[in-house]
């Protein structure tokens, strides 16, 4: 019998891609047990996150729970890699000696060898998808050359390194041949893509080439840095029907003082003008952003400016975090984390309450519209869907009840990964309700 291997991937979608590349080298050797399935396994491979305090705590807790499973005989061997073990490579083996092997964030080949396989260059474009088979994340670069004052990624992941365009197209072709219809472009900073290889920002060119891959219908962009934003990307979004009118662009703040303390290399005026251009040049674009509250130097006036900016910009999607002091960063070494946890939480709550109102207003404005959606799942008589304006795992869903008058005798599960037309008939601040029009 094949040995059983299970993975737990923590943190961002970039980690998910790393796990999938490793699994593609191991699936001939092991039976891959889906994450979350509660059965005994021979090997548990944990991909950790070490970005902020909450993520580090989650990673450590997951490892400790896995150690308990090992003590009960439910796990044979525990192998840990990723950002947490990269960042604390000296401390972690001493703190948790029950783990059998520790590796860093980019130690793919050593992990593969530890698990009994020899890395194969022939499989470099392969992925063992842990997402539904119709969408996949495509990581276009590794590391980051930015030096935001709060961020530990550059010294965890290293300098920015773009993946050659021909390799990304080959990977996309392989994904499409296996049924992937939607690509979600990710990196630490997607707009920086190409500067190291081609001496130019080449994201727009990459989008065009990916859109020519047969079988790919949607391409959406995440993690776009606002400074020196390449505006030819907006042309792709406006003119290329396969590029979703959706942009994830973490802005973090609007106050000039706070942005300067964060080392974001933009000011409030630049940010406002960029948002104006996006809305003007890509009519109907949906913008997702993230904000940080409680960064050192954020006074009440700065926070109120942030609230007013969010009211004006009307971001369709917005997430927010409390500032977390991370050792080794510029912020930790040069600023005092003087804003109390209570005030940070109050500001976070106020910001997210405002965003809930904006999100509800946006969703209600869509009631009555007819749109194309992709079916992600079928659960309890309901199709779980998304339009080009919803990204998986981070945004809301469009829920469509199965109606035999429209669907006929079709097997509902056969529609997973397919596109259908629906009419929006209801909304809350997160999800939408729709009725099917045609399949």
Keywords:
439 residues; alpha/beta; 16 helices; 35% helix; six-stranded parallel sheet; five-stranded parallel sheet
Question: What is the topological layout?
Answer:
Blueprint: E1 3-9, H1 13-24, E2 30-33, E3 41-48, H2 53-71, E4 75-82, H3 83-87, H4 92-95, E5 101-102, H5 108-114, E6 135-139, E7 141-142, H6 153-157, E8 161-162, H7 165-177, E9 182-186, H8 195-198, H9 203-211, E10 218-221, H10 232-239, E11 243-248, H11 256-262, H12 268-281, E12 286-293, H13 300-313, E13 317-322, H14 330-334, H15 341-365, E14 370-379, E15 382-386, E16 398-401, H16 404-407, E17 419-427, E18 432-438
Parallel strand pairs: 1-2, 1-3, 3-4, 4-5, 6-9, 9-10, 10-11, 11-12, 12-13, 16-18
Antiparallel strand pairs: 7-8, 14-15, 14-17, 15-16, 17-18
């Amino acid at each position: 019998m094949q040995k059983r291997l299970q993975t737990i991937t923590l943190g961002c979608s970039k980690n998910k891609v790393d796990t999938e590349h490793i699994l593609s080298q191991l699936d001939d050797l092991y039976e891959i047990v889906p994450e979350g399935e509660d059965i005994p396994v021979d090997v548990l491979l944990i991909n950790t996150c070490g970005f902020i305090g909450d993520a580090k705590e989650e990673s450590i807790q997951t490892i400790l729970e896995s150690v308990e499973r090992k003590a009960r005989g439910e796990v044979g061997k525990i192998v840990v890699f990723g950002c947490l073990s990269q960042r604390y490579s000296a401390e972690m083996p001493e703190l948790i000696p029950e783990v059998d092997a520790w590796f860093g964030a980019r130690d793919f080949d050593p992990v593969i060898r530890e698990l009994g396989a020899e890395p194969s260059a022939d499989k470099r474009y392969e992925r063992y998808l842990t997402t539904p088979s119709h969408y996949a994340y495509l990581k276009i670069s590794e590391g980051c050359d930015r030096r935001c004052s709060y961020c530990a990624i550059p010294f965890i992941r290293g300098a920015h390194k773009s993946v050659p365009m021909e390799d990304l197209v080959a990977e996309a072709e392989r994904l499409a041949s296996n049924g992937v219809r939607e690509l979600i472009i990710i990196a630490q900073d997607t707009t920086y893509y190409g500067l190291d290889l081609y001496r130019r920002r080449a994201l727009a060119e990459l989008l065009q080439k990916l859109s020519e891959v047969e079988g790919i219908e949607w391409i959406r962009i995440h993690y776009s840095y606002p400074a020196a934003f390449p505006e030819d990307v907006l042309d792709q979004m406006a003119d290329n029907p396969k590029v979703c009118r959706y942009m994830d662009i973490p802005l973090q703040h609007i106050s000039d003082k706070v942005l300067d303390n964060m080392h974001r290399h933009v000011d409030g005026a630049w940010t406002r003008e960029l948002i104006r251009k996006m809305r003007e040049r890509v009519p109907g674009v949906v913008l997702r952003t993230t904000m940080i509250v409680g960064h050192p130097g954020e006074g009440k006036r700065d926070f109120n400016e942030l609230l007013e900016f969010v009211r004006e910009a009307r971001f369709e999607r917005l997430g927010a975090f409390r500032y977390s002091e991370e050792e080794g960063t510029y912020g930790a070494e040069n600023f005092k984390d003087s804003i109390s946890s209570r005030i940070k939480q109050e500001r976070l709550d106020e910001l997210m309450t405002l965003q809930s109102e904006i999100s509800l207003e946006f969703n209600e404005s869509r009631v009555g519209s007819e749109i194309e959606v992709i079916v992600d799942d079928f659960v309890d008589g309901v199709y779980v869907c998304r339009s080009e304006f919803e990204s998986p795992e981070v945004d809301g869903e469009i829920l469509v009840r199965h109606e035999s008058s429209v669907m006929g005798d079709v097997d509902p599960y056969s529609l997973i990964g397919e596109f259908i037309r629906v009419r929006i008939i209801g909304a809350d601040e997160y999800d939408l309700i729709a009725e099917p029009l045609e399949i």
